[in-house]
Amino acid sequence: MAIIDLTKENFQAEITKSDKPVLVDFWAVWCGPCQMMAPILHELETEMPDVQIGKVNVDEQMDLARQFRVVSIPTLIIFKNGQEVQRMVGVTSKEELKDALK
């Protein structure tokens, strides 16, 4: 599955309609650790096709960042059945993400 850009307009629909786990990456262009996460997320995209991955640019989607109380980036939130089930802050290894998404 392709990594999708999430906005205030499509966030609820993408999260609640998914029958798969959803990993949401709250990030910013200027954030070095966020840039370190990008290749990890692309690897997960190919290794775990049963997981939907979305990205929220916190500079463009401040309301979403506020709604989910994102104070540090990168923040990665896992949703299952439309509900937040886990949150990780900072650079997270691919192995940690895979374990959390099982």
From TrEMBL:
Entry-linked Pfam families: Thioredoxin
Disulfide bond annotation, renumbered to this chain: C31-C34
Record site feature (Deprotonates C-terminal active site Cys), residues: D25
One GO-annotated biological process of the protein: cell redox homeostasis
Site-annotated residues for Contributes to redox potential value: G32, P33
Positions of the Thioredoxin domain: 1-102
Keyword annotations from UniProtKB, A to Z: Disulfide bond, Electron transport, Redox-active center, Transport
Record GO terms (molecular function): protein-disulfide reductase activity
Domain of life: Bacteria
Coiled coil stretches, renumbered: none
Cellular component terms per the entry's GO annotation: cytosol
Active site: C31 (nucleophile), C34 (nucleophile)
Leader sequence residues: none
Family named by the database record: Belongs to the thioredoxin family.
Protein name: Thioredoxin
Species in which this protein is naturally found: Coprococcus catus
Gene this protein is translated from: trxA
